[in-house]
Amino acid sequence: MNLYRSHTCGELTAKDASKIVKLSGWIYRRRDHGGVIFIDLRDNYGVTQVVFHPESGIIDQVSSLGLESVITVEGEVLKRDDAQINPNMITGEIEISVNNLEVQSNVESLPWSVIDDSIPEELRLRDRVLDLRTEGQHEMMKFRSNVIRTMRNTMWDMDINEFQTPLLTSSSPEGARDFLVPSRIHPGKFYALPQAPQQFKQMLMVAGFDKYFQVAPCFRDEDPRADRHPGEFYQLDAEFSFVTQEEVFKIGEKLMTETFNKHTPEGAIVDQGPFRQIAYKESMLKYACDKPDLRNPIEIFDISKVWLDSEFAVFKSIVEQGGVVRAIPAKGAGEQPRSWFDKLGKFAQKQLRMPAAPGYIVKNEDGTFKGPLVKFLRQEQVEAIFAKAGLTETNDTIFLVAGQEKHVLQPLSVLRNKIAEDLNLFEENTFRFAWIVDFPMYEEEDGKIDFSHNPFSKPQGGMDDLLNKDPEDILAQQYDCVCNGYEIASGSIRNADIPSMFKAFEIAGYKKEEVEENFSGMLKTFRLGVPPHGGFAFGIERIIMIMKNESNIRRVITFPLNGRAQCLLTGAPLKANEAQMNELHIRHFNLPEEALD
RNA sequence: GGGGAUGUAGCUCAGUUUUGGUUAGAGUGUCGGCCUGUCACGCCGAAGGUCGCGGGUUCAAGUCCCGUCAUUCCCGCCA
After folding, report:
1. Which pTM does this prediction carry?
2. What is the ipTM of this complex?
3. Nucleotide lying nearest to A123, CA to C1' measure
4. Minimum mean pLDDT among A150-159, A417-426, A441-450, A487-496: which range?
């Protein structure tokens, strides 16, 4: 017998009756009847009812202990009378009649109750340990642990090596803001925390390891979102040599299906590979975003041209000036009350900052149409639009959004999901995957050409594309994996050809010397013989959020930062003292007033 | 940097608009008492409030106005 326990609080049942046992755990609940006291004792594994009788002589001691105190009890396992069995507990057939109590740690007062599930997040973060004891949060972290175990095992089963890569490394000029770490040994110089192990995993391929993965911490100094933890997060990062895009997809599909099949609820529908592949361009048209939620059956389509042959000056001039009109088909939406349409219009203007509420056309029972825009089109034009949408029933509706393409995409995407949600069109308990492929290599903003994704991706046509195509027309062997409206992975087949790498950077405005300097490590190794290679990185937190249907990423992180990137437990970030600053050769300047106190 | 929502007892929330008006309520938790079979135990009693903060309007502000802070969601940002 262990010093503290012979069993856990989740394992004793009727078959253990009359055993003498020792249990340790936290006081979860107490029911004091004056003469007899019941305590629900909780540990990581479960809850067991322990009973104190007056004859034990420790009643007074027990009633003075605070909830969440840690105790060790010793006693006999008693089978309960039939009337006293609690069918809701695994250990509900028995209880422990205690004759010996040892207090490991007494709790004077609790800031809030572990049983209460309506505690605000600020307190949960401040008292995170208490929060991690609550049933929901405790199970969540065990769930995360199990998911990562499955992912690791799946990778190992495919004979993929697990390696670690440096955390103190160099800044990469592309991408998000870096976290910098001042060097003591090299005054004035800084390490950067990796935004991803990108360069190192490629170097592992050059080193001949063939297949690699790791559960990698990634650091990006960006503002948070509900699905984006500020500062740091984890990726299941992987890279493979001598592979094609399709072979990388197979590995990713195996990883996802194994993980989701094992950890989603009974009866869930999980896409089994091969996953759908959707070209970036197609995705932007049909779903108005590059991470579509495919549980939503609505597909947007373009109806720009019809307005050139109409009397509606607003849409006509938008299209004439290169803008677009897009249609969102909404099956049966005409059954909704007028107030629903009004509310949707207000939402669009207020939340999505659309200049006007989206127009709509509803099909009447007699085959005519109604809505503010109907009078501008001929009957056969409207009929053609509905035919294109495949809408044939009374009350079927089409919403219209017009404007320059870059302005309408975001509102379209949000409206597509909101309409489907309001109309209850989403598939339930379903996990829909897709690969978004054929991303453009470059994008133009304010006349400047920049990489639209990863500068290390291979242009689909190689050097030939780089030399002969308009940069905006060059596609990359770059792909994302999306699930239920989240981007859960990103990857590419890398550009392993040194001349075309320089050319690719040149198009984005980087001089040869800059590239040599910033990627010296990687370039040097590439000159030593680089295999064709490619890979992916899956966002672990997002995968867990999706499986648990959680909307906030902090729920799946043991010790998350708050929305302002502060740790309420440790106070991080904190000021450095003078001695530390001196040693690191750094000094403050230009601090805002509020930082000076 | 910008926009929306929220802020009342330790915690969850009602009261705030329509209509500014006596002592701001409930549940839960806490504390005290009672209770030998409960399992979210029960019963009796008590304590607990700068209505986020500051200013303004008014005879009178939790309620109206302005500002500000905090939390959160979104936009920007996220190769």
Report:
1. 0.94
2. 0.88
3. B11
4. A441-450
Between CA A497 and C1' B18 the distance (Å) reads 72
The answer to whether residues A287 and A420 touch, using CB atoms and an 8 Å cutoff, is: no
- Assess whether pLDDT exceeds 70 at residue A173: no
DSSP string, A215-251: EEEEEE----BTTB-SEEEEEEEEEEES--HHHHHHH
Å between CA of A488 and C1' of B11: 36
Cα–Cα distance, A491 to A197 (Å, whole number): 12
Domain A138-265+470-579 CATH class label = alpha beta
Of A268, A243, A242, A241, nearest to A257 by C-alpha is: A268
CATH of domain A296-426: 3.30.1360.30
What is the fold of A14-105? OB fold (Dihydrolipoamide Acetyltransferase, E2P) (2.40.50)
Element holding A363 (H helix, E strand): strand A359-363
pLDDT in tens, A95-143: 999 999 999 998 888 888 888 777 888 889 888 999 999 999 999 999 9
- CA–CA distance, A320 with A341 (Å, rounded to integer): 28
* Model confidence pLDDT, tens digit, residues A13-38: 999 999 999 999 999 999 999 889 99
Which segments of A87-210 does DSSP mark as H helices, in order? 121-126, 128-133, 135-157, 198-206
Q: Say how far A74 CA is from B73 C1', in Å.
A: 50
Where do the structural domains in chain A lie, given as residue ranges? 14-105, 138-265+470-579, 296-426
Q: Which of strand B's nucleotides are less than 7 A from any protein C-beta?
A: 1, 3-4, 10-13, 28-31, 34-42, 70-79
Nearest nucleotide to A551 (CA to C1') is: B73
Q: How far is the CA of A355 from the C1' of B45 (A)?
A: 61
CA→C1' distance for A347 and B58 (Å): 36
Residues sharing a CB contact under 8 Å with residue A582, sequence separation 6 or more, in sequence order? none
Q: A321: exposed, middle or buried (C-beta count within 10 Å: 0-12, 13-18, 19+)? A: exposed
